[in-house]
Structures are given as C-alpha cells and as structure tokens.
Amino acid sequence: MNQSLEPNHWTYETFRKNTPASEFRQFESFKQLWDSKRKGDSLPAWRDFQIEDFAKWYGWMTVEDIISIEPFDSVYRLWGSNVTTLYDTDLTGKKMSEAEEGVFSLEDFKLGTKMARNQLITLCTGPLKWREVEEKVFSFIEVPLSDDGHTVDKILALTSEHAA
User: Fold this and answer.
1) Average per-residue pLDDT in the chain?
2) b/e for 57-81, b at 16 or more Cβ within 10 A?
3) pLDDT tens, 95-106?
4) Which side of the chain, N or C, has fewer Cβ within a 10 Å radius?
C-alpha cells in the first residue's frame, strides 16, 4: 500500500489488485464481489456484473469510461443519486475534466493515471460538506475494470460515510 495526504486533508491509498478484501475495511464485501468476477489474474469487465450485484449500494456507485490515460480523463457512465446529493452535482454523461471547480483535485487526475497504468485499487478518505449543513468524513474505493482483462478501460467506485 502507498499513501499520500492532499493539502485538503484527503488521504489517497493505492493497493495491488491481489490485496486481501479484509484490508478494505467497510468495503470488504465490495472487494469480495470484485474478486469473485476475476478470472485468475485478469481484471473483471463491467459486463461481468449484474445490477442485482449492487443492490445494497444503489445510489452510492459511480462508473467511469476512461477516454485518456495521460492526461487522465473519463466520462461518467453512472453517477449515483446519493453521490449527486453529496457533491451537489450530477456528472452522469460528463467528462471528469469538465466537472465544476472543487469536485476533483489535481491529485484525483494523477491517481487516475497511476491506477489505469498499474491496475491499482484506490481507497480515498476525506471531509465533505453533507447537504451544506455539517462536514462528514467519506471514503470511496475505486476498482479497475477491463474488457480484455488487462487494459484498464473503466473504473467502478463505491462511496460510503467513513467507518473509523
């Protein structure tokens, strides 16, 4: 695991794809699902999942189609309804690079490149204003997907209130 701290108090951790699911705290069952769709050392594809696989996480998921690795950019195929409320913006069908200022940091784009090049899993934790009332700490996990099992072409993510 590698870790870095962003000036806005976000922690970015990267993990190899074979890291045990137990290392991902509140995302353990999500990582187990992702692992269950892998074939050997290959990455799973988006088509390997059924919508029912995500029933307990509806609204908290995002799916990105990678359109460029360097500089990193993607289009959000899905931006969950709870994520929309959290960020106060719906990015479904929009490029990451076209998001409103403050939604993503430079570190997010660098992390996208690193993740795609190295088939890494990321775990990010930091503060967000919840409904403009109080600041809460949220975490999200991002796992790579690949149509050919090797080239990262999508990112599947799950957001959750941080569990200490």
Assistant:
1) 90
2) beebbbbbebeebeebbbbbebbbe
3) 999 988 778 888
4) C
- Cα separation, 97 vs 83, in Å, equals 17
Choose between 6 and 83: higher pLDDT: 83
For residue 5, what pLDDT is reported?
46
CATH of 2-161, picked from 3.50.80.10, 3.30.450.20, 3.40.50.720, 1.20.1640.10, is 3.30.450.20
- Which pLDDT band holds residue 7 (cuts at 50, 70, 90)? very low
Q: Check if the beta carbon of residue 34 is closer than 8 Å to that of residue 144.
A: no
Q: How far apart are CA 119 and CA 148, in angstroms?
A: 13
Rounded-to-integer distance, Cα 90 and Cα 157, Å: 15
> Which residues sit opposite 3 in a β-bridge?
13
Where along the chain do its domains lie?
A: 2-161
Query: What is the radius of gyration, based on Cα positions, of the chain?
Result: 15
- Whether 67 shows a pLDDT value over 70: the answer reads yes
